[in-house]
């Protein structure tokens, strides 16, 4: 074998074999340079095919290693940068490497020496005849006979030349031709071409069968089309046009993400509609149902905003605080960005009115770039409101879940279920039970509305529920939601919310330009403390609306260009102050203790009053107290009786025989219940029995046991905020609630002295005011 160097042209979609003459066009700069170099040096050139024909500028690794040395017969310019080359293949070569020439490919090659004296045994002759017969069969069934090629094959005695002829004319795939080119053993090569020809024959036969089947189907379809056109023309004359839409609707049905059984059901309903007369009562019902099916966003989704910084910015723009809620949403988006798919979370925001539970839903939708829908569940008592009515009933409509999804236009909106704890039930069913499937991530991917009767995937919907209290939420429904508690705001938080959101919003709503009305921070704080007493900011916004209305009147009638609201003129706009700065006890009193309680509107302080009078040892409780609260009072009294001497009650004080104890909690129209006032009532009773006053600056919360232990309570943050708003200096909490102190804002903790207690003795040390004699 001798090594030589020649310029090379990479061919696209073409292979040149020895003894083959062909014309091809050259337009790439490197290929033109290679041809020109060959014309100036013997007119021989290497032609090898590209592995991937789509590559415009191939590298050495993109070219097959086996090619053909060819003689350039003719070279001429066609126009522009394109030239035509006429060549004749000479012999096959293997390319070993390339030179460092940059203007064109220069290949170092070695010739694949053909076997000169091949022993034409019976096996080789049989292979040559088989290839010839297979080519003949392929030509006949493909109806592309080439008599000239057939004649050459019949007369050819060289196995190599016959293999080349078969490869050029009988193999249609470029990969097959290259495979034949690369085989050096003639017997193996003829066996390979025979297999490839057999495969081509099978492919052509299959293609013919398919074409025949398609032609028959086309004939049948043309016949059906003709008949359908006639039916359509008749229906058009009768005014029944639903049949026109049926074919298009069926095509849309095939694209829906439903199983075959449900698709078939929809198609049957479409056919039924097209066959019904327009005057039929069922026509309208069917048309409405089919319209709903096609209006549902089966495959339409909003693309989530995956930029966490932008999402955080949007949430901060709309709401002040609510750290836990914002963190949960950002975490969801982060996981979604990593996994590319995640079921929508099912969150439940629990907190007093006015803290932003509903409005945060809109902000979440804006932060995630999703559509927003709101469904109020307050007063809902019919299961059909959730699941819809069955189509057998006249006037049946889909449930509000499906209706709202249709309205949103996407299958992954932010879906707010407002006031979820205010659902009720009656003889029409239990809507809370119907919500179980909606809010269960394992079931809601196939939620089936009674009206739609098709499974719809709710797993991508971000469900957000709101509630003022979790007490009335059924346990099974409660278990399906991730609860996030939202407590009330401190005065500083309300001040920031007022300045950033409420006041600008009300000024804009009343058409007052920025700068016309001035309210400084001290006045806003005065409005918060003297005109509102709430956990949220809803009433605060109303007060700003009152101010804006009066200012708008002055601007229009008196042509004022600037209005300043001060402490002196505040009552002119809002009237007399509704709340004193501190409505708790200001003096230490006997038999009066301050308790802390949690209600649906946030934390509140309770003034617990106790009187001891002559009687027969009875315990009387008033103030509309619940059973649990009454039992707490009884438990406290039992502990005092059992430990009277240790608690400083003289032995001759037979209060349990000759005195009655009356416990009263003011605001008797308001129902009160729960065990957390236990230590407050016990302290007030002991104060009344011993004559030792209770400190007015101390408030307390905790459940008491018969052994005098103080048990943990809930709602610590809300209760601490209530004490802070009421001007309390010191609060006593159960020791086991020490772990919850991180929930209380730092400013509140800095203003309050928080004492953790484990027994009633600990409570009394801090709550009772000791005189010099007691000390």
Overall 3D shape: elongated
**Terminal Cα span:** 119 Å
Radius of gyration: 45 Å
- State mean pLDDT (0 to 100 scale): 84
**Largest sheet, described in full?**
7 strands, mixed
The chain-level structural class is: alpha/beta
Q: What share of the residues lie within helices?
A: 40-55%
Stretches where pLDDT is under 50 for at least 5 consecutive residues are none
The spatial strand order of the largest sheet comes to: 18-19-17-16-20-23-24
Count of distinct strands: 24
Strand content: 15-25%
Q: How many helices does DSSP assign?
A: 26
Layout of SSEs?
Blueprint: E1 3-11, E2 21-26, H1 29-39, E3 44-49, E4 66-79, E5 82-98, E6 105-111, H2 122-141, H3 147-155, H4 159-170, H5 174-182, H6 186-238, H7 242-254, H8 260-275, H9 281-295, H10 308-318, H11 323-339, E7 346-350, H12 357-368, E8 372-376, H13 384-387, H14 400-408, E9 414-418, H15 431-438, E10 447-448, E11 455-456, E12 462-467, H16 475-479, E13 482-485, H17 491-509, E14 517-519, H18 521-531, H19 538-557, E15 563-565, H20 570-574, E16 592-599, E17 602-614, E18 619-622, H21 627-642, H22 655-658, E19 659-664, H23 678-690, E20 698-700, E21 703-704, E22 710-711, H24 716-725, E23 730-734, H25 746-751, E24 753-757, H26 760-767
Parallel strand pairs: 1-3, 7-12, 7-13, 8-9, 9-12, 14-15, 16-20, 18-19, 20-23, 23-24
Antiparallel strand pairs: 1-6, 2-5, 3-4, 4-5, 5-6, 10-11, 16-17, 17-19, 21-22
Helix pairs in contact: 2-4, 2-6, 4-5, 4-6, 7-8, 8-9, 10-11, 10-12, 17-18, 17-19, 21-23
């Amino acid at each position: 074998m001798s090594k030589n160097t020649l310029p090379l042209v990479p061919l696209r979609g073409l292979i040149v074999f020895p003894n083959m003459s062909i014309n091809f066009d050259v337009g790439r700069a490197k290929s033109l340079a290679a041809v020109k170099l060959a014309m100036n040096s013997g007119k021989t050139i290497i032609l090898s095919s590209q592995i991937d024909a789509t590559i415009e500028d191939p590298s050495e690794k993109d070219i097959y290693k086996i090619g053909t040395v060819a003689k350039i017969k003719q070279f001429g310019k066609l126009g522009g940068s394109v030239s035509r080359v006429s060549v004749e293949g000479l012999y096959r070569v293997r390319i070993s490497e390339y030179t460092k020439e940059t203007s064109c490919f220069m290949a170092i090659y070695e010739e694949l020496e053909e076997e000169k004296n091949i022993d034409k045994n019976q096996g080789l002759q049989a292979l040559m005849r088989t290839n010839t017969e297979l080519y003949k069969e392929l030509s006949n069934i493909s109806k592309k006979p080439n008599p000239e090629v057939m004649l050459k094959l019949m007369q050819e005695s060289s196995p190599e030349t016959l293999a080349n002829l078969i490869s050029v004319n009988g193999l249609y795939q470029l990969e097959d031709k290259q495979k034949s080119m690369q085989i050096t053993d003639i017997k193996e090569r003829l066996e390979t071409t025979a297999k490839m020809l057999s495969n081509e024959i099978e492919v052509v036969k299959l293609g013919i069968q398919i074409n025949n089947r398609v032609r028959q189907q086309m004939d049948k379809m043309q016949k059906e089309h003709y008949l359908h056109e006639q039916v359509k023309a008749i229906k058009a004359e009768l005014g029944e046009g639903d049949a026109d839409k049926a074919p298009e609707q069926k095509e849309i049905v095939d694209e829906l993400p439903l199983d075959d059984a449900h698709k078939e059901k929809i198609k049957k309903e479409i056919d039924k509609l097209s066959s019904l007369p327009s005057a039929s009562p069922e026509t309208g019902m069917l048309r409405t149902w089919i319209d709903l099916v096609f209006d549902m966003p089966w495959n339409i989704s909003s693309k989530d905003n995956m930029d966490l910084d932008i999402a955080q910015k949007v949430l901060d723009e709309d709401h002040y605080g609510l750290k836990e809620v914002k963190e949960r949403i950002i975490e969801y988006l982060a996981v979604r960005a990593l996994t590319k798919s995640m079921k929508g979370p099912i969150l439940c925001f629990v907190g007093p009115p006015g803290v932003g539970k509903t409005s945060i839903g809109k902000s979440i939708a804006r932060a995630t770039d999703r559509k927003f829908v709101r469904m109020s569940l307050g007063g809902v008592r019919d299961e059909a409101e959730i699941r819809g009515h069955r189509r057998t009933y006249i006037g049946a409509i889909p449930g509000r879940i499906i209706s709202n999804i249709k309205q949103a236009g996407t299958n992954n909106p932010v879906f707010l279920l407002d006031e979820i704890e205010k659902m009720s039930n009656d003889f029409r069913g239990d809507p809370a039970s119907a919500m179980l499937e909606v809010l269960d991530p394992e079931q809601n991917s196939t939620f089936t509305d009674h009206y739609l009767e098709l499974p719809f995937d709710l797993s991508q919907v971000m469900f957000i529920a709101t509630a003022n209290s979790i007490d009335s939420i059924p346990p099974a429904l409660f278990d399906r939601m991730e609860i996030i508690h939202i407590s009330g705001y401190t005065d500083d938080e309300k001040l920031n919310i007022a300045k950033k959101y409420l006041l600008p919003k009300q000024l804009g709503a009343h058409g007052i330009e920025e700068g016309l009305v001035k309210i400084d921070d001290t006045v806003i704080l005065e409005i918060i403390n003297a005109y509102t007493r709430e956990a949220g900011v809803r009433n605060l916004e109303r007060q700003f609306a009152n101010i804006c209305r009066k200012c708008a009147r002055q601007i229009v009638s008196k042509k004022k260009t600037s209005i300043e609201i001060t402490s002196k003129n505040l009552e002119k706009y809002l009237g007399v102050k509704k709340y004193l700065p501190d409505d708790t006890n200001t003096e230490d009193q006997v038999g009066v203790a301050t308790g802390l309680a949690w209600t649906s509107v946030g934390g509140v302080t309770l003034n617990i009053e106790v009187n001891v009078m002559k009687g027969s040892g009875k315990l009387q409780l008033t103030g509309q107290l619940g059973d649990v609260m009454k039992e707490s009072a009884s438990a406290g009294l039992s502990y005092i009786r059992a430990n009277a001497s240790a608690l400083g009650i003289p032995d001759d004080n037979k209060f349990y025989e000759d005195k009655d104890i009356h416990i009263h909690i003011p605001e008797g129209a308001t129902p009160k219940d729960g065990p957390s006032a236990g230590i407050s009532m016990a302290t007030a009773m002991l104060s009344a029995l011993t004559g030792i006053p209770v400190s007015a600056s101390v408030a307390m919360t905790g459940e008491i046991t018969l052994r005098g232990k103080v048990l943990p309570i809930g709602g610590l943050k809300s209760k601490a905020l209530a004490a802070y708003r009421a001007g309390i200096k010191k609060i006593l909490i159960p020791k086991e609630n020490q772990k919850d102190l991180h929930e209380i804002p730092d400013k509140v903790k800095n203003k309050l002295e928080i004492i953790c207690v484990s027994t009633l003795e600990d409570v009394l040390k801090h709550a009772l005011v000791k005189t010099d004699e007691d000390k």
